[in-house]
Amino acid sequence: MATTAPPAAVSQAGPSTPPPEPRRPRRRWPVGQIVLTLLLIGFALLFLYPLVWLVAASLKPSGQVFDNALIPHTWRFDNYVEVWDQLPLLHWIFNSVAIAFLAAALVSVSSSVVAFGFAYFRFPGRSVLFGLVLATMMLPASVTMIPTYLIWKQTGLLGTWVPLFGANLFGSAFYIFLQRQFFLGLPRELFEAARIDGSSYWQMFWRIAMPLSIPSFIIVFLFEFQAAWNNFQGALIYLNAGSVEGFTAPLGVAYAMTKYSPTAGGQADYQYVMVASLLVTLPMLLLFSFGQRYFIEGVATQGRKG
């Protein structure tokens, strides 16, 4: 009689269970990193304090502007309405935007052309000439102030916008250095291939160098826009003889300081000065918030070797 094999023994232990996952070690913050983070937060609050103080002062009545309270005891939102009726703020902001845009556009293009020449062309004395260009950065602005003023006086352009952006047509030593660093990082083979295909130097510049160096162009544009916007000295020299509506934003704030300063038997209305200062500062805050990446890249670029 044939015997059948006994059925396979069924495991009494049940289905197999996966091994427990190993515990992840808790992330421990080094003491040094904690201290550094706290220091950075403290410095950030320290640098934000003037801006918060300015906002608070712009919302106070005249007698409480300098009480150093970050939360006004009496809120006065009418300051923002009244200052628009008393000062030509819109004209000042428009003038500053137009002048800053023209100055930034001119110096960006002119500096790019000179920087491309120093980066691409190989000619005797190139390093010496580039060193002379960089040496002009060591000249204080006070040394060239009077000769520059006399030049613009001879041209008959005093009291116009032209002296505030016209000199940018000849480039800037700092921006030439900055963009030259970018151009030196571009593969030279691209330009050699373009020359073989019959491209001119201008075509190489506009069709190869400029599209590949858009970040450097934006950096220079933002830097010069900020510098032209804050150019109080230039506006004071060349526009002070004009009408109040023709002032730039920094010069307009200085005018507001004079307009609302204490008079004999009167009280200073510095709350309007604070409102004007805040309104002409906001465009630069927006510019920095949108272009922060390019500002940081511009600072890092200065350390590149050319």
From TrEMBL:
Q: Which superkingdom?
A: Bacteria
Keywords recorded for this protein, A-Z? Cell membrane, Membrane, Sugar transport, Transmembrane, Transmembrane helix, Transport
Stored InterPro entries: MetI-like, MetI-like_sf
GO BP? transmembrane transport
Query: What GO cellular-component annotations does this UniProt entry give?
Result: plasma membrane
Ranked from the top, the taxonomy reads:
Bacteria, Bacillati, Actinomycetota, Actinomycetes, Micromonosporales
Q: ABC transmembrane type-1 domain: which residues?
A: 93-291
**Could you tell me what this protein is called?**
Multiple sugar transport system permease protein
Instruction: Give the start-end ranges of region Disordered.
Output: 1-26
Q: Tell me which PANTHER family the record gives.
A: ABC TRANSPORTER PERMEASE PROTEIN MG189-RELATED, ABC TRANSPORTER PERMEASE PROTEIN MG189-RELATED-RELATED
Q: Kindly indicate where the leader peptide sits in this chain.
A: none
